Amino acid sequence: MKPGALLSVLACAFAAVIWAANGDDNLVPPRREVYGNGRIFDISHRYQPEMPEWESNDGIGQFLWLPKSMKNGSLANNSEMKFPTHTGTHVDAPGHVFDHYFHAGFDVDTLDLDILNGPAMLVDVPRDSNITAQVMKSLNIPRGVIRVLFRTLNTDRRLMFQKEWDSSYVGFTADGAKWLVENTDIKLVGIDYLSVASYDYLIPSHLVFLKDRISLYKPD
Asked: Where is the signal peptide (predicted)?
């Protein structure tokens, strides 16, 4: 490319940036789910007031404020956010259900990024059951697989797109969690609602997973 042509391209790009910065009612922010020709899939949910909150029928409500706004004369826009850490797409820290882990500082930043990043197996769970030991055995997940995303009836029911919390969601029973820990190499468990554990086995299933510091990713 000739220098003149390069300068023309740069000038056009600069003009486009200036035009965008000056504001345009038709600007649409890009929101992609697939990157690098399928190398990375973003399966996180966008935070919005109507997304479900644990044991609430009102969703998370307002969670974003703009105390400093350029429209009101501030030099920059500065936002404040407030919502429970157990909201939307999140991972559970080991201290979530173990107080000694909590006070020892086992926060999410102590989780292994090598476990949290990499290829994952997507598994469809039978739609008529929670994830029990029997279900886990029937899935025939091979040894060596360390990241599994469990797609359940929650996805079919689009529970993450309903404002009202639903206690009938699908999750792991205690024996299902125990079977996974004892019979697979899985270190990351992903599921498609606010809890990896079914409501009737809420704490027992978490205790099984987090005792061995299995990373729990939800919702996918």
From this structure: 1-20
In this predicted structure, the answer to whether residue 146 has a pLDDT above a threshold of 90 is: yes
Q: Please write the tens of the pLDDT for every residue from 132-144.
A: 999 999 999 999 9
The per-residue pLDDT for range 39-86, each reduced to its tens digit, is 888 889 999 999 999 999 999 999 999 999 999 999 999 999 998 888
* Nearest CA among 124, 153, 139 for reference residue 183: 139
Burial class (CB in 10 A: 0-12, 13-18, 19+), 142: exposed
Domain ranges of the chain: 90-218
State the DSSP string of 19-71: HHHT--TT------SEETTTTEE--PPPP-TTS--TT-SS-S---EEEEE-GG
Query: What is the value of pTM for the model shown?
Result: 0.82
| Alpha helix stretches (DSSP H) within the chain | 3-21, 99-104, 113-116, 133-139, 153-156, 174-183, 202-211
Q: Give, in words, the CATH class of 90-218.
A: alpha beta
Q: 79 φ, ψ to 5°?
A: -105, 160
Q: What are the residues facing 150 on neighbouring strands?
A: 123, 191
On the CB side of 198, CA atoms within 13 Å amount to 17
131 neighbors 149 (Cβ within 8 angstroms): no
**Phi/psi at 160 (5° precision):** -75, -5
